Here is the input.
Amino acid sequence: MKRIKILLCPVVGMILVLLPSLIHAQPYFWRVASLFMLALLIAAGLHLVTGMARVISLCHVAFCGVGAYVAGRLTLSCGMPPLVSVAVGAVVAGIAALILGWVTLSLEDLYLTLATLAASEILGNVFRGCTALTGGANGLIGVPPLSILRMSFASPDRYFLVCAVAAVGALALILRLEDSILGKSLRAVGDSEILVESFGLRRDVLRLVAFGVGGALAGLAGAIAAHVDGFVGPESFGVAQSVSYLCFLVIGGLGRFRSIIIAGVFAILATEFLRGFQGWQMVILSALAIFILWWSSRTGPSSPKVRVLRKAAPARLT
Here is the structure.
């Protein structure tokens, strides 16, 4: 029952956030609802990497680009069915994340973060520079819509179903991982590496799992988005987007499942509902993030035990 309630969280969050757009225009509602589900996919992958394994990744959204470009190019050039191209895009993104994890196994903390920043810049230059494969600055245009068994998912309400199934499946996977030995081991890597090694677990293998699965989820979101939008451009997969999702997870409570939902809500606020502010979206959200983090730091330790210790502290000093 608890898992069912948790899986219903994205539906409730979507309804609350998108209700104004539903009143405004129904096709726009399904469009934004689909973007919300894709944002949940991206946030779920980053939750696995940063929230559980405590690896600060600044190239997570770049793996979305890998999945998007692979899916778009395979469909346009090879005539591959969209459903197959989406799966291949997710797998290739997962492999790219595994390669990054393998290369950076020996790095720690700040150096690992800088390595992910460098990886994001490398992938961004590949997206813009390899014009034969990616279309360069113009991107890939005319990516066909999703279709399964000759059933087209070109309409907004239909491709929402695909995005929703992928997002709910990713959330169910995260829940399963959190309750498993693997998930507990990943959290242990972020909390105490010495403890993990004392139990005979290999930190590098656990990190590879986090990178691979997280990258595959991000690639899946990008591959689906390529067929939903019909276009793939390099400006959507930069460092700024990765930093934004990282901040959104921190606001939601890094390491907690709810942070995935909150990150998805903030992503939609940034891309859709604050679009009219013309470049001030991230300024507004950053100010809101600073306020939320400041407020959380003042009200965070509110457990009864902490309150008792606070009251007893002056008495002990006297």
Q: What stands out?
A: Confidence is low (pLDDT under 50) at residues 301-318. The beta strands are 140-141, 147-148, 151-152, 231-232. The CA atoms of residues 52 and 187 lie 5 Å apart. The chain has 15 helices and four strands.
